[in-house]
Amino acid sequence: MFKQRLTIKTTLLLLLSLAAVLAGPLRAGEADVVNVTITKEGESTFRINATLLHEDTGWDHYADRWDVVAPDGTVLGSRVLHHPHVNEQPFTRSLTLTIPPGITTVTIQAHDSVHKLGGKTFQITVPH
Fold first, then answer.
1. What are the residues facing 37 on neighbouring strands?
2. 110, 48 in Cβ contact below 8 A?
3. CA dist., res. 7 & res. 121, Å (int)
4. Are the beta carbons of 22 and 14 closer than 8 angstroms?
5. 10-24, 60-74, 81-95, 113-127: the lowest-pLDDT one
6. pLDDT at 118
7. Residue 70 contacts by C-beta under 8 Å, 6 or more apart in sequence?
8. Is residue 114 within 8 Å of 26, Cβ to Cβ?
9. 45-53 and 91-98 as β-strands: parallel, antiparallel, unpaired?
10. CB atoms within 10 A of CB 37
11. pLDDT tens across 59-98, in order?
């Protein structure tokens, strides 16, 4: 009876350990946009600074992009993030792009290498 209990406990411990290892990349969750500023630089040219928060774990799971999206869902531009920011959280990166005059607001959405699009988005008024 003691040997059987020990085997059951050992099996459960192994299963829990395996689950923790497999869930490792998922622990970081989705990438969130926590702040955005937008500055007019030209007639229809704007500089957008987006601050992202994501518990990057390394190359296996990191925030790898953010997008500027028009109200109709059109992606106006994307800022690709070429490496993890494990020890730099939250972090801010910029993108300069053209936004047509008829667009009065844009939404910034983040993307990560595991969950893809998701997390908190940020909507901001375009200063035309």
1. 49
2. no
3. 48
4. no
5. 10-24
6. 87
7. 76, 103, 106
8. yes
9. antiparallel
10. 12
11. 999 998 999 999 999 999 999 999 988 888 899 999 999 9
> Is 0.70 topped by the overall pTM?
yes
The closest of 34, 12, 17 to 90, measured between CA atoms, is: 34
For 9, how many CA atoms within 13 A lie in the half-sphere containing its CB?
6
Structure tokens belonging to residue 122: 């940020």
Place of tokens 């667009």: 103
Q: Are 45 and 97 in contact (CB under 8 A)?
A: yes
Q: What are the structural domains, with CATH classification, of the chain?
A: 28-125 (2.60.40.150)
Q: How far apart (Å, rounded) are the C-alpha atoms in residues 82 and 11?
A: 41
**How many other β-carbons are positioned within 10 Å of the β-carbon of residue 92?**
13
